[in-house]
């Protein structure tokens, strides 16, 4: 596994925040060797634009409060169906359930290691 422990800690915080706002299919992926420009992806889904917004807000708030981290870039906030939060060392994808099936990031990165998102 190539994901440094501080990045894994932030990923776990983001996953917990997403889960608290009822996101589904939360998956962490070690993409460092495959992508090269980031260490990890966090993928999660929600059934509506309103819930996607709530998940994104909670993730951003918790990462700021607990780790002092803010995204370098946000994409898709206006569309409401796929929001990407780029923190540099990790990229968080919050997708509408239908968008997730359509674009298939899970399939594209099926061979990379999955990360344990549970805190010890």
TrEMBL record:
<keyword id="KW-0963">Cytoplasm</keyword>
<keyword id="KW-0810">Translation regulation</keyword>
<comment type="subunit">
    <text>Interacts with ribosomal protein uL14 (rplN).</text>
</comment>
<dbReference type="InterPro" id="IPR043519">
    <property type="entry name" value="NT_sf"/>
</dbReference>
<comment type="function">
    <text>Functions as a ribosomal silencing factor. Interacts with ribosomal protein uL14 (rplN), blocking formation of intersubunit bridge B8. Prevents association of the 30S and 50S ribosomal subunits and the formation of functional ribosomes, thus repressing translation.</text>
</comment>
<keyword id="KW-0678">Repressor</keyword>
<dbReference type="InterPro" id="IPR004394">
    <property type="entry name" value="Iojap/RsfS/C7orf30"/>
</dbReference>
<dbReference type="Pfam" id="PF02410">
    <property type="entry name" value="RsfS"/>
</dbReference>
<protein>
    <recommendedName>
        <fullName>Ribosomal silencing factor RsfS</fullName>
    </recommendedName>
</protein>
<comment type="similarity">
    <text>Belongs to the Iojap/RsfS family.</text>
</comment>
